[in-house]
Amino acid sequence: MEILVPILILAAVLAAAYGGWRFIRASSGGGDADSTSAIPQQEPRFERPLGDTPEAHDEISPHDIPLDNPGRVKAEEMAGGEDGTTRGPLPDG
Questions:
Q1: Where along the chain do its domains lie?
Q2: Which of 34, 33, 50 minimizes the C-alpha distance to 42?
Q3: What is the pTM of this model?
Q4: How far is Cα 46 from Cα 25, in angstroms, rounded to an integer?
């Protein structure tokens, strides 16, 4: 019986958190955020792989690759030396 009180308290906390989340979710209106939105939201965009954004730079520097990685030599060749950058091999077409 003594474990019943902590379980009830935990259930009350979880219910309150879920209710708060539902309230915030319902009041945000969905869709892309604008300057009046209290909670930033964005629709999923599937044009690029997960974690890759149009704002991200596609170039790499040979310094981005560890010295003992076999790809470092190829990256240095493609970048024209250690100080250059490369976009990697471009697809044919």
A1: 58-93
A2: 33
A3: 0.34
A4: 23
